[in-house]
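In the previous chapter we treated chains in isolation. Here, by contrast, the input contains four separate entities that must be folded as one system, with a combined length of 1041 residues.
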Amino acid sequence: MNITELREYLCTQYPDLCPLFSIEFGDGVLTVPSDRLGEAMCSLKDLGFDFLGMLTAVDYGDEFELVYRLRAREMHLGLFLKTRVPREAPHIRSVTALWPSANWHEREVFDLFGIVFDGHPDLRRILLPDDWVGHPLRKDYEDPNIIRRPDYL
Amino acid sequence: MSFVWGLLWGLATVLLIAGGAVIGVWWERKVSARIQMRLGPQQIGPAGSLQMIADVPKLLFKEDVVPAGADRRVFMYAPLLVFAPIAMAIAVIPFWAGWAPLDSAVGVLFFLAVPSIGVLGILLSAWSSHNTLSTLGGVRAAAQMVSYEVPRSLAVLSVVVLAGSMRPTEVMGAWQWWWVPLTLLGFVVYFVASIAEMNRGPFDIPEAESELVAGYFADYSGMRWAFFMMAEYGAMIAASLFGAALFLGGFVWLPGLAGLAVYIGLAALGYRDWRRSMAAEALA
Amino acid sequence: MEEGCAEVAGIDDVARALERTSGGGVILTSLDAIQDWARGYSLWMMPMGTACCAIELIAASFSRFDFDRHGSIPRPDPRHTDVMIVAGTICTRMAPAVKRLWDQMPDPKWCIAMGNCAVSGGIFYYDTYSVVRGVDQFLPVDVYITGCPPRPESLQDGILRLREKVRAESASPSRTREIEGVLPLPSDAPRGEAGESE
Amino acid sequence: MSVPSDIDREAMVVPADCLEAAESLREVGAQDGRLTPEGDEDHLVVNIGPSHPSTHGVCRIVVELDGEIVVRAEPVIGHLHRGIEKMAENRTYMQVMPLTDRLDYVGSMYANWAYCRAVERLTGIRVPERAEYIRVIVCELQRIASHMMSIGSTGADTGAFTAFMYAFVQREKVVDLFEAVCGARLTYNYVRPGGVAADLPEGWEEKCRAFIEQHPTAMVELDRLLFGNVIARARLKDIGVLDPATAVAWGATGPVARGSGVDWDLRRDDAYSVYPRFDFDVPLGERGDCYDRARVRLWECVQSCRIIGQALDQLAECEPGVIKADGLPRLLAPRPGDAYDHIESARGSLGVYLVSDGSVRPYRMKVRSPAFANLALLPMLARGHTLSDLVVVLGSLDPVFGEVDR
């Protein structure tokens, strides 16, 4: 299965989600609403994406965007899967059951962004001490300890 | 009279161990440095040989830390309990023909039995310093030392059976050259077992830096820690002298000293070839 | 450490008594001299390596830039060491551990802050929420070594500088000896009044 | 490990072996590092670290011991968390460069390269060929230096401390080469977006060739010194066995995965830069224990020498002097959008994900750290071993805590 077959499969499977494809870098990008994430993840794992390389979040002001990077190792395919989560009560389904590598990555995203992953076996802070207040990587995070870098530009 | 004599000999033993420790520490640091392509101490004395002259006063003036949770009195006297048996054991070693400081009929048994009191000292020091890692180290050390005493005693037994007596001076006196092939295996077993007894070399799991920070003497500082080092080097000297006296017999009139002479000769040889290699490096 | 101070105070009375006797001062200074010389030449170090400077600390104690030449062996156990070399960034989560190790070290102890992160937070000074900006916020630092990471040679120069500083120590802590090599810290009184600090 | 097809998709029933993995994690869960030893109480809870001679940096392992056997081990990390990703949001693209050096400080060269590739993919800069070759040479040298550090610490953990010293000799030679190229011993800041900071000084190629000539023989000698030593081998064999399926499931990459036979190397399978022009093979382990992981690292160094040799030959053909893409603005302000790129570092697939909002500062920078993913294996690998083997297993996962904690 190569990149074009993956594109047809995704376009037929999720016609309304308009998966984007950049042939030059050989990666696909699939933006999925958060409620259909579980189903998309299951079918992709079924397809042969057996490696979850990266899982991170980006703070876009009113909502967070979660970025998953999946890889099908035999087929040399890479796929980005993005979903948006509201800022007030950021909840998303945990994929640790499908890829255990997500365990620590989800704990880190919870630690630095505050996004709660339902069904995660052991959701605790991983990098910061447990009594830390706030989630540092949010854009609106202020901390008296931070000294802003003066702007020399 | 025998009390004064005993006192005198006690002093001599401590000086012997101290001298051995000075040479031992320098020799160990230089040889391990040489193996690891380093230079080792070189700023005090010729080729750094007097480095201990700087280390010992520093340890003397160090603060004597007793951990809060520790059982104070046991903690303070445990190192003594480790060092004293080694010093006592040296009293039995025959130094020259027919004479040993403590010439007793069961000298060999005395030499093998007394150092095992050191195991108690190690367990006490490990337990009293109220530190989980050092307790683990202490238990490991005790297990290793107790288990290696049996082969060591059997190895020495082979010589005693040949000599027909337990008195070290007689064993050394009755030494024949054809004993060597017979007791060769015994000597090897004795050598390996005494290394394990001293927790040195390949048997240093109890104080391996990689997991237990420093084994049973983790919480000792300054002079108290130096007692453990002296005990270790003392055990080395005692084991090698006793081994030389029994198994090799050496020159009939000075086996013990022969062992010591070989020891110092090795040090001198090592020093000479080290100087030559330094000169060679300088030329290259 | 109350009983510790008692012993130390004891030495102070001995020092005062010695000074009062005619030749006593000579004995005391010579005792100080021996003690300082011995401490200077056998500074056993506690490698408190956390980040990149730890790699340079390892390189400094290995074959090419041998630390053993100065008589200083890296000892992992705080109880056997004299100088703690803090090498690398100290984060707020790591600071209590460093302080605890510092307290476990027996008394005549010194501290070397190796690398910009240990000196002042270095490259991680701005925009961080979890870095302690400089180890001297919770440790009494004796020698600062700059560099990111400092070269092994400058680290060993730091050890030799510490030897100079050790010469100012004395058996009785209340008495310090003036040595000319020490640069006055900005917080020190101006040179003029240094006399009565004796 | 594919999902059985007849399961009810919506309920997302978990396949059996994933359950077992998830189950094992709930058991390891500890509140703030303090293990609550349920089960019999005579377990001993011991803290190893955070400053410990063998934890390769600042990692506290809370170990529940039954006698000497590890019942549970929980690595507590974050002691070196400096918030590099937060700092990157207030720095321009070029000012972020020195931060990447401090991520994987044992291998700063390829940490720079990973960041530069992400920036180049974001801005579409074309890197001249000579710069690509120099990058490959310098990063393969850095892989050798990083592996020397890892193999040396494996030796130190198993008691063969002299092997650490002999491995460091090779590392010092590589560091000398780097010092000639960019002046620094550890934090180089040499690979820049668009190329490299400076051209190779003349005579550098000969020194580099001299190094790769003597390196394979030094590796054979180190192999005999460390892995020939019966004690070290006995302490490494069958310790921390990792099967390939778990390795992939847990996201392990690099020598940790290849030690278990997972045939995955980004330089060949997801070839980037000029790697397709070199032929080299990827050493694999069979049993996936600490011994195989260390041996894989050792023989990867020899393969790196082969790559450097071919790169040096092909470097001669490209036109000299062109080491930076021309027309680079002083302040990069890439188009809004995001880009992810990864390279094969000494620890695995090191990736950088950059999001740009059109300004001169990255909106978000995420570093996918291979050591972070590999360290997650520790609780599973260390269970059932003795305390001293726990330290050996940690050493074989080769974590560098600048990169784990970021």
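Confidence is low (pLDDT under 50) at residues 1-37 of chain D. The beta strands of chain D are 44-48, 60-66, 69-76, 191-192, 195-196, 337-345, 348-356, 362-368. Compare these points with the single-chain example from earlier in the chapter.
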